[in-house]
């Protein structure tokens, strides 16, 4: 009923198509009844009388009666006004036909019939209801198709907006941490400072420009991950082990940007970075069934996984939300924790 209520402002059908419909229907009726009576001149005159009345009834019903009464569940008023409209139209149509077209008011029936008889009223009313039902069905069908497309477009735009919003939440704290590290390096006049500036610039360029696209090349995403890891190494023990393994043909693979990053961030966040035993193993593999398998395993501090759980969970929550929006039920995400390491596995379709 909501679509009925918006009919007054509904311009789903351009005016030219209204004209085409009525002209086509008029021509069809003239030929049809002209052939039936064997008198095309009579058919033309009678349709010239009747069609303006058809049009008035149809648009009165669709744009006034339906949205103001039927859509608002005022059924008695709707039925009363529809019957009154049909009665008024019958009087006008019959009178004009009698005065301007023929004294035989119902030529298609047997013998000479009189106006305002029960059978004539029923015949004319059923004819008007037929025209009204046909035009209304066409109108509402087109409206339904239009609304369906409009809803699909809105959902797509909402999805795009939400994905963009989620992506903007991913890395701000990383930038702050890196700037702090850069500040410390500049104070020490470290030779690493220019390299840090370059990698940070590459990361910012990727996030600001490339990550705004629906999909990016997996090779570019891996390069972004490598730049991120190189900067995080500045805060890790010099003996820390961080490896990335790539498997399968990934040259032409594209994926949503930044889909793996929150898991990598958490590996650094919850791992004991100052320990010589700290490690992170990352695996990205294209599988034969056109899916991509990502896994990351890291050593961790037992208590760190539960510290500040509300804050630390934002990245994973955002990633899960993005996965649900992008893949619905076609992805697999699992978490495995034991005494020594924490492992995340994600399997997505390509």
UniProtKB/TrEMBL annotation:
Entry keywords, A to Z: Kinase, Membrane, Transferase, Transmembrane, Transmembrane helix
TM ranges: 20-42, 48-66, 78-101, 121-142
Keyword Isomerase: no
Domain annotation Signal transduction histidine kinase internal region: ranges: 162-238
Cellular component aspect of the GO annotation: membrane
InterPro entries in the cross-refs: Bact_2-comp_sensor_kinase (IPR050640), Sig_transdc_His_kin_internal (IPR010559)
UniProt GO molecular function: phosphorelay sensor kinase activity
Keyword Transmembrane included in the entry's annotation: yes
Designated name of the protein: Histidine kinase
Organism, as annotated: Tenacibaculum gallaicum
